[in-house]
Amino acid sequence: MSQIQRLWTEFRLPIRDALYFADGHSYDVVLASDAPGGWKVLAPFDVSDMLARGPDWTSSVDGLISVELGQGGLWGGDGSYGSEGFVARLAPDRSLIWAIFFMESNPFEEIQLLGEVATFTSTSGTKVAVDINLRNPTPSIN
């Protein structure tokens, strides 16, 4: 079980603008209104190294909105602090497939699904669109 899977069993995610996959792969991300989905994938990083330096640097997450997909679902909500938000894709048993955590998005309270793309909207109006089958992202160069 990866570090991120262990955290998810406690409904926790690292406090970092990042995309986390259940297999342990993690990428820095940034909200970017000029990007097609409202966010960009940056460089990969090792979440285990990050947590070794700051094991308590995690946030409790709580779902505010969900959409069932038949084979799992989508979940969005908030973190421990008012400015945090997260979006996630879950397996049928509610285990994590992927999650994206933002420190300054505010909680996500709405999900619109159009085909394979989910658009999550936060209480501050921040919108991020994500391919629900997200795999192996290509980091942005700029």
TrEMBL record:
Domain of life: Bacteria
Protein name as it appears in the record: Uncharacterized protein
The organism of origin for this protein: Streptomyces cuspidosporus
